[in-house]
Task: structure prediction
Amino acid sequence: MVHLSKAAGDFPRIGGGNRRLLFSHKTRYAFSMLYFMTLSILSGVLLPLALPNELFSFGFPLLGCVCLAPYFFALARCQTWKKAALCSVLFALVSTPLGSFWLAFFKDFAFLTIGSVTLAYSVLFIGYGTVLWRFSRPGLWRPFLIAAFWTFYEFIKSTGYFAYPWGLIAYPINTLLPLLQIADIAGLWPLSFLMAFINALVSESLIRLRACSKSPYNSEFGRICGVKRRKPGFSLQSFGCAKRISA
Result:
């Protein structure tokens, strides 16, 4: 029979290794959150730059194809909806005032114009970002779902009494006349879907590249054959193919 004692020495203590492990976990969590927040802020800056502005009078089409990719990448990497909501709020806090900077020139009413719009979109993106995070879960249809919901979001923000149809992802392609013919036939929303889909594909490519870089295999052929990446100080005997041949 095992007797339990209340002596202090009978209880496990947090040793130096456990403390280092706990600190390492918290550090990784903090750096990951900082990484996701930086990506969201980056998209918040790139989207207004891609729209028609003082630097690019008719928009920047190439930048419009990648401006949302960091934000989509951050959402796909977030493990909880709370992280996704925080990233979405940061995206709205940065992109809204930069994209609608002229609202700050209403003198005494500047706080009501740009301040109210920024606050409204920051609150709305808590819900929008959470839903978009749900569509960002791993799956074959992830780029399509992200593009479809982003198009739905832009349609909602552009209709109704409180509509604010500025800052749409389709605006950077003003100079691409062949694509503008689509708007002449089917309206603006196919272009919004196309641009959002391109950004989602760029984000998906970054996710796949990151996954492949962490894989112990050099290529898809190596994964099938079992040939792992060569590491310094390891011999060929650690390779899967070498074991199979010797067998």
The chain is about 65% helix and 0% strand.
